[in-house]
Amino acid sequence: MTLQIASLTLVGTLVASQPAHAVTQMSRVSGQVIEDGTNTPVADARVFVVLDDERAAPDSSPPEVLSDRVGRYQFDMLTPGRYHIAAQKDGFAPPMDPSTMQIFEVAAGQVLDGLTVSLRRGGAFAGRVLDPQRQPIANVGVTALLKRLNRSDQPYGVASSGPPLLMPSGQGQTNDLGEFRIFGLWPGEYVIVATAQSQFGGAPTQPVAATTTTATYFPGTADVSAAQPVAVQSDETVSDLIIPLVSVPAFKISGVVVDGAGAPVANAMVMLMGGRRGTDLLLSLVGGPPLMSQSDAGGRFILDDVPAGAYTLRADAGFGGAFGFTDTFGIDIDGTPRGDPSRPRPAREPGTIEVTVDNADVSNLRIVVAGSQ
Q1: How far apart are CA 370 and CA 212, in angstroms?
Q2: Which residues is 273 bridged to in the sheet?
Q3: pLDDT score of 2
Q4: What is the mean pLDDT of residues 147-160?
Q5: pLDDT tens sequence across 277-327
Q6: CA nearest neighbour of 193 among 235, 228, 155, 239
Q7: What are the sequence ranges of the domains in the chain?
Q8: Which residues sit opposite 292 in a β-bridge?
Q9: Mean of the pLDDT values across residues 141-161?
Q10: What is the mean pLDDT of the chain?
Q11: CA within 20 to 30 Å of 81's CA: 66, 104, 289, 294, which one?
């Protein structure tokens, strides 16, 4: 934070020392948003630009405007530079990443008109999710995972390898009839996964031999390698997809949260996420929200309904900041998330441990947090 403040102070000093005529002239860019293949104007599309400069502030919001009723858009105050431009609207496939977006460049004071931005109609999946008794179930999250990103729009031209779970690309939720619909998808092959809502932890509510539903892949398997990919084209709806949730044995994870001196920490939030840190943890996000619990007066916590598997467990004694995990990963050309070899693996955050549930309850865990309130 000190370095950032110093940099801002230096910039302010330099600008203040320049003569009035050295103030940067802003540029103007305008054009039209059209539907790919038909050239039909697209109204009310969100058009945005991203500066093609690694030095740009990562937390700054990209400039954006809405297209009018004939698809026209205009940016009046752009700083000179090289930009990526794209548009987004419900029902159309969203842009994947800046490297796939159209690029333009403007000089100081330049007026650039006639820049056309195309949107492609997205595909959709529709179907139902059933509970283990084959009854419709509501409030189940359903995610479409793009099996392969192909920038030449030929997703079937390359043989797949490795596990098919790659990139979350669309989400939906079942209604009271168990029905879901996921739309705005790029053409390609997808793995579809359904996950029932997790419970906020606390005292045990299930018998020892309890079972729980787990992330279930179409057509009805808990094993991602056995999932059946489903293909979709632009402006196509693939319907009647039925996903019966799989029931598996449930186990418990318990332990105690302590501070650096070994004293119990009460009211600490404890979160369990599927997968270990790195790309496994990234992909586990599609498995639904993490299991959460809160330590009692003696620092003890318990998490129920945990299927067998590898997990990352974190406790946090504070309530003022974000509660999550920090890690580094990259996405290669076929869409596979991988660890970034150019960066060192971040140190494990305080209060974070890795846990394996191997068909038995796990107890007596000890999580040391940095501090408490």
Answers
A1: 33
A2: 312
A3: 32
A4: 45
A5: 444 444 555 555 678 889 999 999 999 888 888 888 899 876 444 444 444
A6: 228
A7: 16-119, 123-249, 251-368
A8: 200, 271
A9: 58
A10: 77
A11: 66
Name the token pair of 20: 């009035």
Looking at 2.60.40.10, 3.30.200.20, 3.30.565.10, 3.30.428.10, the CATH number of the domain 251-368 comes to: 2.60.40.10
How much is the pTM? 0.70
Query: Could you confirm whether domain 16-119 is CATH 2.60.40.10?
Result: yes
CA angle 240, 151, 190 (to 5 degrees): 20
The DSSP string of 46-110 is: EEEEEE--TTS-TTSPPPEEE--TTSEEEEEEEPSEEEEEEEE-TTBPPP--GGGSEEEEE-TT-
CB 371 within 8 A of CB 318: yes
CATH number belonging to domain 123-249: 2.60.40.1120
277 by Cβ neighbours in 10 Å (0-12 / 13-18 / 19+) ranks as: buried
Computed from CA positions of residues 46, 51, 55, 56, in that sequence, does the dihedral angle turn out positive or negative? negative
With tokens 């070899």, the residue in question is 341
Residue scoring higher pLDDT (349 or 87)? 87
Same fold, 16-119 and 123-249: yes
Residue 311 tokens read as: 């997990």
Taking the C-alpha atoms of residue 154 and residue 226, their distance in angstroms, rounded to an integer, is 24
User: Who's near 57: CB < 8 A, 6+ residues apart?
Assistant: none
